[in-house]
Amino acid sequence: MTEDIYNDMLEKFPSTFEKTSLDREKSEYMTSCQKEVVYFDQFKVDFMKTLLITDEKGFCKSCDAIYMTTSQKEFFMIEFKNGDFKNNDIKIKILESLLLLSRKFPKTNFMEGNMYFILVYNEDVRKQEQPKNTDVKNVSKHLFSSAKEREIRFGLNRFKKLYFKDVFTYSKTEFVSKYCV
C-alpha cells in the first residue's frame, strides 16, 4: 500500500536528486544525480492548495524529496542544505513533513518501520560544522570509528526510532558516493 502511495506521488510530483538539491540563492546543485524522487516541496504546496492555504513566506516547512529504493522498498525523506543552517530549522522541517504525510494519508502509517531520514549538507560551507580545533573533529571521528558507530550530527539522533527507522547525516560527497552510483 505504501508503495502505491509513493508511486502515485512520484507520478504527480516527479523530480530528480539533482533538481531537489538546487540551492536557489546560489543557483547551484548539490548533486547531478538523475535518480527519480518525489518533489516533496511541491507535494506540500499542492496539498496546502487543497486546504485553500497559500504557502506565503514559508508558512509550512517541508523536506526536499522522498525517495524509495526499488530493491528493499525503503523510503527516505531527504533534506539538502548547501549553506549554513540552524539545527532547529531541520527539526521543524522534519516534523512538519511528517505531519503533512499523516494528514494527507490518515489511514496509512506511511512511515512506520520503513522510513529513513537523510540530511545532506555542504561541509565546506557549514560554518558551525568547522570546529575551531580540528583535533576535536579528529578525536570524534576516531571514537565513532572505534565504537563501530555512525555519527548522527546536528542533534538529529533524537528522531531515530521515534519517527524514523534510522537517521543519516552525510556530506554531499558521502551522499553521492552512497546513493548516486
Task: Tell me about this structure.
The protein has a 6-stranded mixed beta sheet. The protein has a two-stranded antiparallel ribbon with strand order 2-3. Strand 5 (65-68) and strand 6 (75-81) form a beta hairpin. The protein has helices spanning 2-12, 17-20, 40-50, 87-104, 134-146, 172-179; strands spanning 14-16, 22-23, 28-29, 36-39, 65-68, 75-81, 115-121, 166-171. It has one domain. By secondary structure, it is of the alpha/beta class.
The SS-based structural class is alpha/beta
Helical content stands at: 25-40%
Count of extended strands: 8
Binned strand content: 15-25%
Essential attributes:
six-stranded mixed beta sheet, 6 helices, 8 strands, alpha/beta, two-stranded antiparallel ribbon, 181 residues, globular
Q: Would you spell out the secondary-structure blueprint of this structure?
A:
Blueprint: H1 2-12, E1 14-16, H2 17-20, E2 22-23, E3 28-29, E4 36-39, H3 40-50, E5 65-68, E6 75-81, H4 87-104, E7 115-121, H5 134-146, E8 166-171, H6 172-179
Parallel strand pairs: 6-7, 7-8
Antiparallel strand pairs: 1-4, 2-3, 4-5, 5-6
Brief overview:
With 181 residues, the protein is of the alpha/beta class.
